[in-house]
C-alpha cells in the first residue's frame, strides 16, 4: 500500500474531516483504493478505473463496512479521530465525568472561567483546561465530528454563551444540563437569534439517559451512557490508533497492515480494528490476540521474508475450533482479515 495514502489519511484525521477509504475486494481492480473526503475524491490508486467509473455512487456512501458496488465487493472504512469531550463548566458533575472519561479513553477538555474551579478540573486529570470566558475559549477551540460537547455551567447566561459558539462548529453531540424552565429559556433565546432550528432540536436536553440518577457520579454515568450510545451508532472504525500513522511515515522498513474487514459470530475485536506488523516481530495495535493474531503473524512472517511486492491478501480465521477454545475464546466466531504490504 502506498505511503502517500497514509499521508492523506493522517491529514484528514488531523483536520477532523469526514473521510472514507474504499478498498475493492472483488474481481474489479482487486486491492485498489479511493479516498473520499468531505464528499470529494482526494486520492485514488494508480491504474484503476473501477472507482472512477462508480464515483457518484461511492460519494453517497456514509457508513463503514462491506458493501456491493456495481456487483463488486468493496470494504468501506470511515476514518475517525480520538473522541474528545468538551465540558463547559467544572462543577461536581464535571469532576466525575473527567475521571470516568479517562477510563473510557476519551480526551477530556474542560472550559471554565473561574480559576479555582479550573484548577480542580486540572487536578482531577483533565487533558486540557481552558480558563477564560466561555465565548472566547470556545471560539478558538477547533472541534471536529468526533467532538462531544457537554454544557453544565452554573447559570443560563453562560449556557447561552456556550451554545452560541458550539452551534457554529462541527460536532458529534451537544448536551445541555438544567431544569426544564432554564433550558427552555436558553433555547428560546438561541432561536430568537436566528440559529438553525434543526441544530437546536438536536441538542440533548435533559442531558443523559434517564436512569433516575441523583448524585454527581450517577449523573456523569448517565451522560456517558448517552454519549456512548450516540458514538457507537455512528458505525465508525476504530482503525488507526495513536502512533500507527507516525510509525509508517517515519520508517522505511517493510511492514504489513492487518485490518478486520468481516466478522461473524463472537470475536474479540470488531470490523475496522487494525494492527501494523513490523519486520522485527513487534506490532502496533491489535486485532484481538490469541489465535487470530497467531494465524496472522504466521502469514505476516512469510510476507516479510520476501522482497517482492504482494497483492492484498484476505485471510479467514476460524475462532470456533478446538485451538480457539484452548486460547480461551470459547464463544468463537470467524473474522476476515485484509493483509496489505506497506
TrEMBL record:
This is Xanthine dehydrogenase. It comes from Lachnoanaerobaculum gingivalis. It holds the Pfam family XdhC_C. InterPro entries: MoCofactor_Util/Proc, XdhC_CoxI, XdhC_Rossmann_dom. It comes from the Bacteria. Residues 85-227 form the XdhC Rossmann domain. PANTHER family: ALDEHYDE OXIDOREDUCTASE MOLYBDENUM COFACTOR ASSEMBLY PROTEIN (PTHR30388), XANTHINE DEHYDROGENASE SUBUNIT A-RELATED (PTHR30388:SF6). Residues 252-306 form the XdhC- CoxI domain.
Amino acid at each position: 500500500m502506498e505511503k502517500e495514502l497514509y499521508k492523506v489519511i493522517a491529514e484528514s484525521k488531523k483536520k477532523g474531516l469526514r473521510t472514507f477509504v474504499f478498498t475493492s475486494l472483488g474481481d474489479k481492480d482487486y486491492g485498489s483504493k479511493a479516498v473520499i473526503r468531505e464528499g470529494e475524491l482526494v486520492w485514488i490508486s494508480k491504474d484503476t478505473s473501477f472507482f472512477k467509473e462508480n464515483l457518484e455512487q461511492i460519494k453517497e456512501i456514509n457508513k463503514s463496512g462491506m458493501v456491493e458496488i456495481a456487483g463488486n465487493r468493496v470494504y468501506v472504512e470511515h476514518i475517525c479521530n480520538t473522541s474528545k469531550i468538551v465540558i463547559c463548566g467544572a462543577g461536581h458533575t464535571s469532576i466525575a465525568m473527567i475521571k470516568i472519561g479517562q477510563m473510557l479513553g476519551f480526551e477530556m477538555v474542560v472550559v471554565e472561567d473561574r480559576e479555582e474551579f479550573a484548577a480542580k478540573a486540572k487536578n482531577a486529570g483533565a487533558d486540557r483546561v481552558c480558563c477564560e470566558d466561555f465565548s472566547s475559549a470556545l471560539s478558538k477551540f477547533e472541534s471536529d465530528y468526533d467532538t462531544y460537547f457537554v454544557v453544565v455551567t452554573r447559570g443560563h447566561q453562560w449556557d447561552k454563551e456556550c451554545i452560541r459558539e458550539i452551534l457554529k462548529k462541527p460536532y458529534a453531540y451537544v448536551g445541555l444540563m438544567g431544569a426544564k424552565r432554564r433550558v427552555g429559556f436558553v433555547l428560546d433565546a438561541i432561536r430568537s437569534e436566528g440559529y438553525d432550528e434543526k441544530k437546536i432540536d438536536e441538542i440533548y436536553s435533559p442531558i443523559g439517559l434517564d436512569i433516575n440518577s441523583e448524585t454527581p457520579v450517577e449523573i456523569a454515568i448517565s451522560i456517558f451512557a448517552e454519549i456512548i450510545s450516540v458514538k457507537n451508532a455512528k458505525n465508525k472504525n476504530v482503525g488507526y490508533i495513536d502512533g500507527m500513522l507516525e510509525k509508517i511515515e517515519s520508517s522505511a522498513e517493510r511492514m504489513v497492515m492487518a485490518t478486520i474487514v468481516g466478522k461473524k459470530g463472537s470475536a474479540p475485536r470488531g470490523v475496522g480494528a487494525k494492527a501494523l506488523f513490523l519486520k522485527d516481530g513487534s506490532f502496533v495495535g491489535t486485532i484481538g490476540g490469541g489465535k487470530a493474531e497467531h494465524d496472522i503473524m504466521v502469514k505476516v512472517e512469510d510476507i516479510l521474508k520476501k522482497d517482492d511486492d504482494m497483492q492484498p491478501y484476505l485471510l479467514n480465521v476460524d475462532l470456533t475450533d478446538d485451538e480457539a477454545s484452548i486460547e480461551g475464546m470459547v464463544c468463537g466466531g470467524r473474522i476476515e482479515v485484509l493483509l496489505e504490504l506497506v
